[in-house]
Amino acid sequence: MSVLEVRNLSKRFGSLVAVRDISLSVESGELRAVIGPNGAGKTTFFNLISGFLAPSAGSILFDGRDVIGVPPHRRVGLGIARTFQITEIFPELTVFENIRIVTEVAAGYRLRPWLAAAEKAEVRRRIDETLALAALSGKAGRLVGELAHGDQRAAEIAMALALKPRLLLLDEPTAGMGDQETYEITQLIRRLHRDRKLTIVLIEHDMRVVFHLADRITVLDQGSFLAEGTPQEIAANEAVQTAYLGQAA
Amino acid sequence: MTTAEHRRLAVLAAIWAALIFAPYWMPLFGGYTALGSRVLVLGLGAMSLNFLLGFTGVLSFGHAAWFGLGAYACGLTLKFITPSTPLGLLAGTLVGGIAGALLGALLVRRRGVYFAMVTIAFGQVFYYIAFQWSSVTGGDDGLRGFARQPLDFKLFQIDLLHNDLAFYYFVLVGFAAAVAIMAFILRSPFGRTMIAIRENERRARFLGIPIELHIWIAFTLSCFFMAFAGALYALLNNFADPRVLHYSLSGDFVIMAVMGGMRTFWGPLLGAVVFVVLQDYLSSVTVNWMSFIGILIVLIVLFFPRGILGLLWQRRAA
Amino acid sequence: MLQLIFFNVTNGLIIGAFYALMAIGLSLILNLSGVINFAHGGFLVIGGYLAYALTPRLGFWGALIVAPFLTALIGFAVERLLIRRLYGRDPLYSLLLTFGLAFIIEDGTRQIWGANGLPFSVPAALTSPLSYQFFFITGYRMFMVAVVAIVVALLFVLLRYTRIGVRIRAGTLDLETVAALGVNVRALRSLNFAVGIFLAGLAGVLAAGQIGLEPTMGDGLLMPSFIAIIVGGVGSLTGTLLGGLLIGVASGLTAVIFPSASEAVIYVMMAIVLLVRPRGLLGEEGMLT
User: Which of A246, B234, B289, C213 could form a Cys-Cys staple with B74, CB 3.0–4.6 A?
Assistant: First the structure.
């Protein structure tokens, strides 16, 4: 069973069709990149999968289970975690505190007035683990709002990780980053994919990142499905090239 | 222990030392014990509000309602039901807290300025009732005819009414208990979700935190603390009048919290000290104290939004 | 009995018109700038007292026209110098600021004109009752309602058909887009604020003619204005208008049956609205939450 299966998904805003009849399926442990020129409907697509928008038609199956109608915060509970185009973090808390909050919520402790020593130790262990994974251990005591953009993004991804997701949705993780930061984030995502075997769906504009990381690529254009395949197949696909080049012209 | 923790403990020790010995060093500055009690009670009120405002980020501007309810419930209990100080306190706390819990359920669906408006309006409902229902509450003249009763421990009694010093320490014990509970909650996983909601509500929601529920809990807790402070206030004055329900008192609490430092734990107490002293001083010196307070508010909002402690924190971090 | 009801309902409508005038000004400012103007009552007071100061030179009619404009000018200055700095911040701060301003205005008024009430003279032509049958509907009250009706109508026309009006309405819904379209959002906010204050100032002049002048005369109108907005629906000016009239009428009707509760009834209405339809009668879901 695929982790994520989308069938004939559409979203209409009045007469404007943002997403038209999209189908795809993502297998466990796969890293899928969703690309397409501006206005292709990628973020709308993400919003549909993570529950921020309700589809006009079609179905979304997560681990075989229909999630349409399930609000975003419940989808988190089911195992879908996502990051946003504009980094969503808790700016005036430290990296450690940011991850601690997520870890405690993920462990079901959000209403607890206190924790037993064993529970505290376990939470601590998980936080350290997440920090190490995101290569932020050295920066744990810094305020997230004061970090460099790349580190903020890494922190945001770390927070998503702390939720122990089955499916990780990354919305333009390298947006606005320079080469060095892009490299570091790419390495992070690769670690998550290779070492942790996480299932990841990624929206990206930076083709280097896409071709470096993706197992498979889905291309959208103007809200519709255009092509899907391995990076090699997509690179050779003429329709894809026209869609992108047509934009530039 | 790290130096940071050392410093924290030192500061804490200093604060409590100052509070415990207040009746002795205050007179040196022209203060007196009853003033200290007043500052403690209002400070607790400001801290209770800050529990919600500064730590959860919820803009409640009608919080005096719970303070006033606590005061009236305590006074009414002492006057009509039983002359027992602890029971009066308990009644005040419960009435205010439960009312807050009930109304909170109604209000938490809204947030931001709209929530502020609604809390103000609801606060005024209680003001209006206290004003009109004069047969019970004494109307504009206020609720009189009750006084704090001595604490009866069978073997000995502590006179709270005539002994200002004893009453001060009584209030301090109550203050300490409330503050300890507050601190405990803020350090817990629940307290951390409150802070998360303040920092980025959207993000908190998308972590799976049911925002409305958590805000309702925080709101209810702060109402209980507030009502407790209000009950203490009634005991302090042996009197309760509609003013303790008016939104201008809510405004006073907000100012204390902001002035002292909204995002700090002890800031509101400091704000209360400054505010009470200032108000006392200004009203004895000039007829236009209202303008001065108004100008002070404007200046703080424009230039010192982080409050006194907030400024100190920044200074240290930089 | 019928006449009593009629009397009170009409009275209620007149009061309601007044509430509506205040509430609409408050609503304008709230909708576009997200600011709860605690000083709105204070601007009413300024309007009234300015009219009082201007009447010796300009007469009643002159004062009626000029005082609101002057008040609006003061409001414009306040927005420009003080409130504007707080837009990016937590709404708490602008709330506190207007709260402080209210103090300053009340005390300042007391300082300049004294704490006691002052009389405000109105042309005799207006004070005479309309007819013997409807003796309680004095000309002045009808005049007030007429002024409110005209001004509100003009406002709605302004909002609907002029460029500025359209921008204000669009800005209420989506300020970012409006800014992206090249509109000077800051100027828009200042202007919008001034319009809201104009209405408060006008209310002050009208009130002065009815109840005389007093530094605290604005206080009693602030709460009903809030409630008018909550009942009518946040974000909708028509709703606010409706809300104001409704609570006025409810207040008037209650005065027939249960006189001492006529003020309480508006709070009851608010509670009912919050329970049954939290967004208000004409409010839109998601406004200002």
Answer: B234
Residue matched to tokens 């109840």: C211
Q: What is the pLDDT of residues B144-189, one digit of tens each?
A: 878 777 777 767 777 777 788 888 999 999 999 999 999 999 989 8
Pair A162, A106: CB distance under 8 Å? yes
Is the Cβ pair B128, C85 closer than 8 Å? no
pLDDT for residue A200: 93
Q: Out of C100, C104, C270, whose CB is closest to B121? A: C270
Cα torsion angle, A130, A132, A135, A140, sign: positive
In order of A75, A170, B110, C23, C179, the CA distances from A70 in angstroms are 6, 20, 22, 39, 35
Give domain limits for chain A: 1-79+166-249, 89-164
User: A101 vs B205: CB contact, 8 Å cut-off?
Assistant: no
What's the complex ipTM? 0.84
Based on DSSP, count helices (H) and strands (E) in chain C, helices before strands: 11, 0
List CB contacts (< 8 A) between A72 and chain B. Answer: 205-206
Tell me, what CATH number does C213's domain have? 1.10.3470
C69 domain-assigned: yes
**Beta strands at B151-152 and A216-221: parallel, antiparallel or unpaired:** unpaired
Q: What is the pTM of this model?
A: 0.83
The CATH architecture assigned to A1-79+166-249 reads 3-Layer(aba) Sandwich (3.40)
Between the alpha carbon of residue A37 and those of residues A68, A178, A226, the distances in Å are 27, 21, 11
Q: CA A52 → CA A48, A55, A72, C69, distances in Å?
A: 6, 10, 6, 47
Each residue's pLDDT tens digit, B23-39: 888 888 878 888 899 99
Determine the residue of chain A that is closest to B194 in CA distance.
Answer: A110
